[in-house]
Design goal:
single chain, 332 residues, mainly beta, Thrombin, subunit H, Immunoglobulin-like, 3 domains, six-stranded antiparallel sheet, 3 helices, elongated
Length: 332
C-alpha cells in the first residue's frame, strides 16, 4: 500500500481529533436518525423537500425541528409536515457542530391581501394572541373592540407589499343583525430585523389592532379588506387594435394622407405606440413620405400606365403587437 493511500484512509474522518469526532458523529446520526420515531422524510421547507427530526415541546402548537447535517433552517421558514404548516419563529441553535435545531409555531390562518396592483396574495401565517386585550374603546353609547395581536409571517416579495396602516381580515363572523362580516385588523407596527438572525433569516413580525368592518370597501367572500378588482388575464393579454384612416383610391399625380390609430381593449387611443409603414405589390411610381406621428403622405406619379394599379399599405406597431392593412387603387 502506498503512503498516499494510507494517508487518505487515516484522515478520511478529518485531520485532527475534533474533526474526526464531528465526522463520526455525523455518520452515526445518518445511520440512527431514520429509526427515530420523530423522523419525517416527507417534509417541505419553503416548498422544497427536506427531511427533519421533529420533537414535541411542552406547548401543543409548537414543535422543534432538527436538521440533518449540513442542511439549513432559518427564522421565517415555512415547514410543511403531515398536512400542517409551521413557521420558524426563533433563531436556530447549532447542536455539537452536527446539525441545527429551531422551534416552529403552528400556522393558524391563511392570510389573503392585495398588492399595489390589485393582485391577490396569500400566505400561511401565525396569529399570536399573546398580547390579546378585551378592552373596548368609545363612548357610553358607541363602543368598538380594541384587541391586539401579533402576526408572524415569512418576509418575501409578496409580504413586502404589506405596509403600516394596511387593514387585513383574519376571519368571517356575523353581526347582531345576522349579516356576515369580516373580523378586521390594522397593521400598527412592522419589524423584519428583530428575530431574523443571520443572512438567511426572513421573519416578519407585525403588530395588529382591531379595525371596523367596512361593507363598502371589504370583500367578505374573498376575505380581503379594502378590496379592489384585480386585473384579469384577459385585460392583460388582449393586444391593442390598429386602424388605418384614409381613402382606398387615389389619382395619378396626387397625394393622400393616411393615419395609423392604435386603441386598447377599452377603446382608448394609445398615443405612445409608433407605426412602421410597409408597401406591398408593384410599388413603382409610389412614394411614402412621413408626415407627423403615425401619419404619412402616399403619392403616385403622374403616369397614365399606373391607372388600375393596386398596392397594399400596412401599418404595424413597433413591438409587433398590432397591425392593419388596406388596399389602395389608382384611378384616372
Amino acid at each position: 500500500m502506498s503512503w498516499d493511500v494510507y494517508d487518505r484512509m487515516m484522515n478520511v474522518y478529518g485531520t485532527d481529533e475534533a474533526n474526526r469526532a464531528v465526522a463520526t458523529a455525523k455518520e452515526t446520526f445518518y445511520l440512527e436518525a431514520v429509526d427515530n420515531p420523530g423522523y419525517h422524510p416527507d417534509c417541505k421547507r419553503n416548498g422544497v423537500p427536506q427531511r427533519f427530526l421533529i420533537e414535541r415541546t411542552d406547548v401543543p402548537y409548537k414543535a422543534k425541528f432538527v436538521t440533518f447535517p449540513d442542511e439549513d433552517i432559518w427564522p421565517g421558514d415555512l415547514i410543511e409536515v403531515n398536512g400542517l404548516i409551521y413557521i420558524i419563529i426563533e433563531p436556530p441553535r447549532f447542536l455539537d457542530r452536527i446539525n441545527w435545531a429551531a422551534v416552529g409555531r403552528l400556522c393558524n390562518i391563511n392570510l389573503k391581501w392585495q398588492d399595489f396592483d390589485g393582485r391577490i396574495c396569500s400566505s400561511p401565517v401565525c396569529l399570536d394572541a399573546g398580547v390579546y386585550s378585551t378592552t373596548l374603546n368609545g363612548t357610553d353609547t358607541v363602543q368598538a373592540p380594541d384587541k391586539q395581536f401579533k402576526l408572524f409571517l415569512p418576509f418575501n416579495d409578496d409580504t413586502s407589499k404589506l405596509f403600516l396602516d394596511k387593514r387585513i381580515a383574519v376571519d368571517r363572523r356575523y353581526d347582531k343583525h345576522g349579516k356576515q362580516i369580516l373580523e378586521c385588523y390594522r397593521i400598527t407596527g412592522m419589524n423584519r430585523v428583530a428575530k431574523t438572525y443571520g443572512e438567511g433569516g426572513h421573519l416578519l413580525i407585525c403588530e395588529l389592532r382591531s379595525s371596523n368592518y367596512s361593507p363598502e370597501h371589504d370583500n367578505v367572500e374573498e376575505l380581503i379588506c379594502d378590496y379592489i378588482t384585480p386585473p384579469t388575464e384577459d385585460d392583460q393579454s388582449e393586444p391593442p387594435t390598429c386602424l388605418i384612416n384614409g381613402r382606398s383610391t387615389t389619382r395619378i399625380g396626387k397625394s393622400q394622407k393616411y393615419t395609423a390609430v392604435f386603441v386598447d381593449a377599452n377603446g382608448d387611443v394609445l398615443s405612445d405606440v409608433e407605426a412602421v409603414w410597409i408597401l406591398d405589390g408593384n410599388t413603382t411610381g409610389w412614394t411614402m413620405t412621413p408626415n407627423g406621428c403615425n401619419t404619412l403622405m402616399l403619392s403616385v406619379d403622374k403616369r397614365e400606365e399606373l391607372i388600375g394599379a393596386v398596392i397594399t399599405l400596412t401599418a404595424t406597431a413597433q413591438d409587433g403587437s398590432a397591425h392593419a392593412s388596406m388596399e389602395v387603387e389608382v384611378i384616372g
